[in-house]
Amino acid sequence: MTARKCFKTCEADEYTYAGLERECYCGNSMDPENGPAIAPMGNCLTPCSGDSSQNCGGSGYIGLYRACGSS
Questions:
Q1: Is 20 exposed, middle or buried, given 0-12, 13-18 or 19+ CB atoms closer than 10 A?
Q2: Are the C-beta atoms of residues 59 and 19 closer than 8 Å to each other?
Q3: Domain residue spans in the chain?
Q4: What InterPro entries does this protein's entry cite (predicted)?
Q5: What is the distance between the alpha carbons of residues 19 and 8, in angstroms, rounded to a whole number?
């Protein structure tokens, strides 16, 4: 798994969000009460299994990506 592979997988299935915590998660919305927050430095540094130079979240922390429109 890599950040790009996760994002492309979610995008192909027409999801708006991609998240990584060792595994790839896709979705179209987030619960406002559980929205993104800045994690303490170092909590999202688990290396991706597909490319150890990339980070794939961490234990209890998800790296979150959102698709942007073409404009």
A1: buried
A2: no
A3: 3-66
A4: WSC_carb-bd (IPR002889)
A5: 11
In Å, how far are 1, 42, 57, 63, 71 from 49, measured between CA atoms? 5, 18, 11, 14, 32
pLDDT 10s digit of each residue in the chain, 71 long? 998 999 999 999 999 999 998 899 999 998 878 777 777 778 888 999 999 999 888 888 888 888 886 55
CB 42 within 8 A of CB 5: no
The model carries a pTM of 0.79
How many CB atoms lie under 10 A from the CB of residue 35?
8
Alpha-carbon distance of 68 to 24, in angstroms, equals 18
21, 62 in Cβ contact below 8 A? Answer: yes
